[in-house]
Amino acid sequence: MELRFYNTLSRRIEPFEPLEPGRVRMYHCGPTVYQRPHIGNYRAFLFADLLRRVFEARGYEVLQVMNITDVGHLVADADDGEDKLQAQAEKERIDPWELVERVSAEFFADLEALGVRPAHHYPRATQHIPEMVELVRRLLATGHAYRVGDNVYFDVHSFPGYGRLSGNRVEDLEAGARLEPNPEKRHPADFALWKSDPHHLMKWETEFGPHGFPGWHVECSAMAMKYLGESFDIHTGGEDNVFPHHECEIAQSEGATGQPFVRLWMHTKFLQVDGGKMSKSLGNVWNLDDLAERGFSPLDYRFFVLRAHYRGSLNFTWDALAGAREARRALNDLRGRLAAAAAGAAPGRAPVVERARTDFAAALADDLNTSAAVAALFELRNAFLRDGLEPAGAAAALDFLVEEADAQLGFLDPTAAVGPSDEEVEALLAERAEARAARDFARADAIRDRLQRAGIVLEDSPDGVRWHRS
Ligand code: AMP
Ligand code: ZN
User: Fold this and answer.
1) CB of 26 sitting under 6 A from ligand 1
2) The pLDDT of residue 230 is above 70
3) What share of the chain is helix, strand, coil (3-state, %, to 5)?
4) Which of 8, 122, 212, 251 shows the smallest number of beta carbons within 10 Å?
5) Residue-wise pLDDT tens digits, 133-157
6) 88 touches ligand 1 (CB under 6 Å)
7) The pTM is what?
8) Nearest CA to ligand 1 atom 7
9) What is the pLDDT of residue 260?
């Protein structure tokens, strides 16, 4: 089934075509590690994981990169002002490098708890300074950038495509009151590539001067192109990243290489609280520990996020989270009931399961419509509770629930996994031996596959089959 996604750049839903057949290369704007990411940030990161899983379920080889911003992200996403990391480190009276280590560790632990598949690279900005300097150098050489003292700026008038992603027009931006006048800039909408500040704690000596550090936007361009090449398939972030961050990334990357940077831009809507922004000043910022204190597991939150469409608004309330927890429990319970009804049978055809499978796949292929995908699971559950299923049908439903639905949405409890008991394994092995004796190898293989998926490793030995749990 053809995958179709909404592209922020074209403002349309488009069929997905990878640059290289069978491979997808994607970059996700990751956390600024000055404080533990809140659950709103995880809406953006869970979306990245969903994309990864949907591609992998369809046989794509995925190369996934998420950066860690540990320098240069200034408050209010602006060009001037305090570095978020430095400000927080000073508040806590600790070294900014120590803060980076602590928050990164919290971030990785959260990702694991949320069942996120690890990206292939998590590049840290501070470990890619030479790549950023090289990119700035290229922009100076191609006439897209200019130096003023030890600062380097991007000249937005040198790049006619500036504004295409966000729909902003340079003239409007410059007429707008949002831009602080900066006498160093040629044009008010120009943005910093490299900044100099002797008071900055994280700084590097380069050809631009002794006390420099990179601009936030240039970090992502340099790291994305290092790991994914000058042109790659997908770039994601939260809706606030569209402007200025991603607009500036496009200008820098394409300005330097002359190549199209990214084919598909995808953005998640913000998680809201009471219809407004989740923000520290309003005291409505929650993290995974806050959820745990109220009895919610990270997977409850994962399911809460993933059953809403990523481009739809999503309002966080404790009641809504409780609703997601109930729904998740119902699906865990469904797995247990299906396992009991299947009683070790091999999967066979059952129309309700076929329908669920088709509806589920079609929903995800339709711009990742996870709400419709989850609805297909509940249709199956309702049909099963109402009419029951033959063992072969129940086995097919169980296969679908675990191998397709959970493989892509990741909502089932791993701890409560319903593996076969020792007796069931022995019974299945006896059945497999019988099938082999009757030369029904398809059936024998199906049983072996089924056991394998349940984590049972078989070893054929001269004394018969031995097994253990992996
Ligand atoms: P930051 O740590 O501020 O650099 O943000 C990391 C990622 O989280 C970015 O992609 C943001 O767009 C995203 N983000 C921030 N707040 C929210 C929110 N309330 N809902 C969804 N995504 C968010
Ligand atoms: Zn970024």
Assistant:
1) no
2) yes
3) 50, 20, 35
4) 122
5) 999 999 999 999 999 999 999 999 9
6) no
7) 0.88
8) 41
9) 98
